[in-house]
Each structure stands twice: as structure tokens, then as C-alpha cells.
Amino acid sequence: MAFQSSRRVVYEGDAGFSTGARVTGADGEEGNLIYTGPGTGAYERVESYKYVGRGGSYDVQRKREESIFSVWCLLIPLVLIAIVVAVLVIILLPRPARVTTTPIFANEFFVPPATSTMPFDCKAGYWNWEKGWSGAKKQFCCDYEGRGCPVLTTSLPFDCDAGYSNWQNGWSDEKKNWCCNHYSKGCMVVAVQTSLPYDCHAGLSNSASGWSEGKKMWCCATYSLGCPSTLPYDCDAGYSNWQAGWSGSKKNWCCQNANRGCEVSLPYDCDAGYSNWHVGWSSAKKHWCCLHHNRGCPVLTTSLAPAQSCQLWGDPHVKSFDHTEYVFYRQGDFWIVKSDELQVQARFQATEWTKENDKTDYASMTGLVVSGSLINGRKIEIAPMENNGQITCDGRAILHGFGEDACGAAKLKYGAEGMLIDSAMSSLPHRIVHITLPSGIIIQANRWPNFMNLMITMRPIPGQDGVCGNNNYDKSDDSGKQVHERFGQGVQHPSELLFKNKIPLQLPTSVLPTKKCPPEKRHHAEATCKDQLSGGWALAECMSDVCAGDHPLSQPQIYDCHAGVSNWKAGWSEGKKKFCCVATNGHAGCQ
Description:
Elements: E1 2-9, E2 22-24, E3 30-32, E4 45-53, H1 60-92, H2 129-132, H3 135-145, H4 167-170, H5 173-183, H6 207-210, H7 213-223, H8 242-245, H9 248-258, H10 277-280, H11 283-293, E5 308-313, E6 317-319, E7 325-327, E8 332-338, E9 343-349, H12 352-358, E10 364-371, E11 380-382, E12 391-393, E13 396-398, E14 403-407, E15 410-415, E16 432-437, E17 441-447, E18 452-458, H13 480-487, H14 519-530, H15 539-548, H16 568-571, H17 574-583
Helix pairs in contact: 14-15
């Protein structure tokens, strides 16, 4: 509250004296001198206050003390309330369960008690856990054995579809190399054969308006480049009855662009006189029909030169044409069959599955290339299923699904039927490629997710050799040691390499597992191999062969399968029975 001061003057003179004087107060108001009675003495000034409203400066010190006191009166209760609330929150909120963590080291996992029944076997099917296991099994095995856990993937460094129409000018060298190696896109062509009528990479980005019709049709049919949105004819449709069912224009177009339906341009009719081709055909016709239609091919006498098979499976084990067995654990690019007529190379690499499960660096077959003069130098390449693996003819992807196709004189069939080379893979879906070549050569490749098995069936080609042996019916020169000495260093000359690039040679360093060589054989194998290692034969490869009992054998005898055939069961030896059973394709000597 506020007060306003006023003043009065009191006379202290004689009694009853009054002067009528006036006095002015601090607020400007005038007052009169009044008589105060006798004997009061002189005048004096007395200050007084009256209320004029709220505020003002009256009693300032007291006002400040009251203000501070009011603040504390509000603050202290608020602080006390906050403390009480915090205590209640701590007491009433549920506490998290206490978790004791134990560090997990490699190969050290929690194992449930032996008496309990495990709901899943985390070793069964582990090589294909991503696609083959259920979600419950993945979760269980990840929690208890550290297997089947989800793996974060990183993005690919390049998108090989983006800008592909102008890859030659628009892509960097790094992208070209990466896309070529992984998707067969952007591969640089070092040289173009002069015999080809067109360079299908020149002007590809402007093929629609810049190429002639002839170049478009040829490049489309040969390399699937520059193809119009719709081809004028489907040269596969109705091919079994092309002579009567195709129109003349379709025959001409398919003959020029797909080598099908040709009537007058072919130098020989390989159906005419086929029943007597041995005597009635000229050498030139035999050669041409053998290359183009697998007819009229020279063959050796069956009883003296039967077809034999070479098999490769696993990491890999090799059963040669001459029936010796050995392992080829090393990594690199190797000749499987080396000759002018037939050239087969395989790539051996250690897979992640082998490293993790077998704890070894032993290789498996991860790539296959077939070429040679039998198919006029065309190149067939086959890869496993993973990482967008493909089947290609001269770099062009074919057989995206089950079906049939051709690559020059080679006929390819892709399906689920065929021999199971490795019985350990029987539970997986079968994806088998059959390649039929002139001279009756058959190549079978079993494609699995991350590796392949291989079988080659053929009669001997003079001078042939390779990891499959020399196919001369003599076991004594195709032991594991001898084959490693001849071909263990891989493809030596870059000009001979059929793959796009070469991987380095790497000998196995892992100790041979007990399951491959039990303790009772290990000491003998080590002692034997230490004296025989030469020419790059690795200790693990030698020990595996010794433990398996593979040793060079004497040259087998060649038998006359016609002599004594009427009494073969009683009159032939076991060796002759086995030989003639194979030599006559099951017609004689088979038990």
C-alpha cells in the first residue's frame, strides 16, 4: 500500500493566541494555523501519512524481505514434491532381468544336456542352410551352435544392367572388368576373327538405324546382339519337319542366320547314303558330316578300343579313363583333356563350405570349358548355380532353363536326368548338362550350388592326355604321382588358357583329416610319401592316395572278344569277361 505525507504547524506561544497563518503541506495542500489551547508553547511541524493506493516506496526494506520469504515458501514445497515423485518412480518401476553373458569363442557353443532330445541336427544340410532350413531350425542352430545365423550382405559395386546399351564408351575400366568376370557383360574383345562377316560390337549402340539388315540378322542369330524386337522366324519351331513344313522364305532366312533349313547351300547331304557311309562316302564328306551332324565319324574297332569314362567329383577325386584313382586337392586352372580335337579345362577352387566344415583348403571344380577342332573352336562354358552361374556358347548365355540347344556341332541338353556321379549329393535337385560331340564323345556336368561333378565318355584320341589320364588302357602310366608330374602345374601358356582369366596355382597346406586317412594308415602313408614327393605332388595328395590304396598296376591285357564267345561263361577268365563286357557294350562277358 502507499501513503502520502502532509504537514501541520502547531503554535507553542501564548495561550489563546491565533495568527491566522497558513501552512502548505508536501502535497501542495494549504492549511490554517489553529489554536491548541493555552500553555501549549510554540508551533512545531508534525509529519503524518494518508492512504492513496497500492504500491509506493513506503517501508521498502520490509517489502523486500516479504518477497524473498514468499519465493522460498513456493520453492521448498516444489523441491520436496519432486524428490518424493523420483523415489516413487524408482521403487514402483519393474527392474530389468539380470543377464549374465559369457563370451563365445570359435568352436565353443552351449551344448544342451546329453539326456535332452535335440529338435534339430545342425550339421545335416548345413552346406545349403540358407535355402534348405526352416526358420525354426535356423533360429535354433544359430542360438545353440552358431550355425544358420543371418548374414548381412553388402551391395554390389556395380549395376551391370545400367548403361549396358553404351557400355563400351560409358563404363569405366573397373566396371567393365567386374561385370565381365561376374555377369559376362562388358567384356572387351581383343581381336575379331577376319573370317567373320561382321563386327557385332562396332556401332552396337546405334544398331537400330546404323546397321544393315544383313548385319542385324547375322549378329542377332550369332551373338544375340542388335536383334529387332521381333525376329521374322523362329528357327526352332517345326525344325523336325522343316523340309515339308517350312516356307521357302523361312528356309532361306533360317539357313543364313541359324544354319537350319538349308537345302542347296550345304556341300553334303549327310542323310544320303548313310547306311553305307564307311565305303560310299568320300573322306571330305565324312569329315564335313562328322563335324556338322556327328555322322561319318571315324571310330576304332569296338573290341579293341572301347569307350572309357573319366569321373571327377568332390574335392576332387579323379577316376581316370584307365581306372586309376587319385585326388587333386590343389587350386588353379588345369587340363582335363588336352588334344587338338578335344580340349577340356577345369577350374579347381576351395569353397567356403569346405573351409568351414572340413577345415581344409582342398579344392572342388568351380568352372568348366569345352572346345577343340571337333566343334570348330567354339567354346562352351559351364558354371555352378550360385552367383548367377550360366551356361554359355562363345560368351552368349544359353539354356536359362531345362531344354536343348546347340553350339556349333555340339548338342546340349539340360535337365534333371543323368548319372549321379557323387552319391553324397543324392538329396539335392539334379541339374545335369549333357554335351554330345562328334565322334560319339559325351560330356556330363552335374551342377550343384557351389561346385560341379564331371564325367567324360570317349574313345582314345591319339596323343591325348590330361588330369583324366592318357586313355591308353594302361594303368601303369596314370598313377596320381605321374599325373601330377605331367599336369599338376596347371595350364602353362596363356595362349592355351580357355578361361577369360587365370587364377594362381595354390598347393594344399591343410593336414589330411582323419576321416580321409585313419591313424592306423597315417604313419605308413607319411613315411611312404616323404620319399616320393617330387614334381609338385603335395603331401596331402600323396597321403590320400596311399591311404586309399591307389598304386600303379600292370598293363591290362587286350582280349579278342570273338574268340570263344559261345562258351564265354566257362571258358573266359574273369579279366577277359570284364574287358569284353565293356568292349562289346554289354553283349558278351557280362555277369
